[in-house]
Amino acid sequence: MSKYDEARRAFLIGAAVGAVTGAGLAPEAVAQEAKSASPATAPNPTSDGEGRGAFFGEEDAVTVAAFVERLMPGAPGMPGAREVGVLNYIDLALAGAYADQQDFYRAGLTALDAYCRGTHNAPFVRLDPARQDAVIKALEDNKAPGFTWPSAGAFFNTLRTHTMEGMFADPIYGGNKDFAGWRLVGFPGAQPLFSEAEMASKEAFTRGPLIGLRAQAPLRRN
């Protein structure tokens, strides 16, 4: 893993650590939708588990999967966006609670494709990692031409936010597969109780099992 990859992972993980005090790490918009639904069935849209079928077509799904993997790259022993299911999370969210952002994504992906073809003569998914990173940096700095709405910076910030949500939100929303994101930041999930020593400790929580909203659904219906 390059130093650039390590820095990007460290930034997202550090930002997530500051958010682990949230209830189940549920994104606000998704949490609002889930208030009127059983945790066992939210979100309502379904995909094939690879991030296709709820909103994304195959071409857009491949592009988003490649983009978010560069935002949160995997490494041996360290799951990245692809392994954790970030694409699936975004796909489900755009078909549900984030449906108002569908046109935002469509326009942003169209502009991204045009920028990559105009600058590198190839779509994003066919670029090597170094050129993909250069494209992402241009978006982050809001210096990629051809973006009107959304702006390049706004598109980058939204994808980064949704990548973090897919990594660290409760698995019921389609990401954080096998609690990999929670394990990465030492978030314990919904434990029945914590000892005084655990409450005072500054070390990552290691006692299991991790419990998410789906496992709690039978108790909430009683």
Account of the protein in words:
With 222 residues, the protein is mostly helical. The protein has one domain (3-221). α5 packs across α8 (152-168). Mean pLDDT is 80; it is low at 20-26 and 31-43. It has eleven helices and no strands.
Please report the distance between the alpha carbons of the first and last residues: 48 Å
What series of H and E elements makes up the topology? Answer: HHHHHHHHHHH
The overall strand count is 0
Number of individual domains: 1
Mean pLDDT across the residues is: 80
Strand content: under 5%
Structural class label? mainly alpha
Protein topology:
Layout: H1 3-17, H2 28-34, H3 58-71, H4 81-84, H5 86-94, H6 102-120, H7 129-140, H8 152-168, H9 180-185, H10 196-200, H11 213-221
Helix pairs in contact: 5-8, 7-8
Keywords summarizing the entry:
11 helices; 222 residues; single chain; mainly alpha; 53% helix
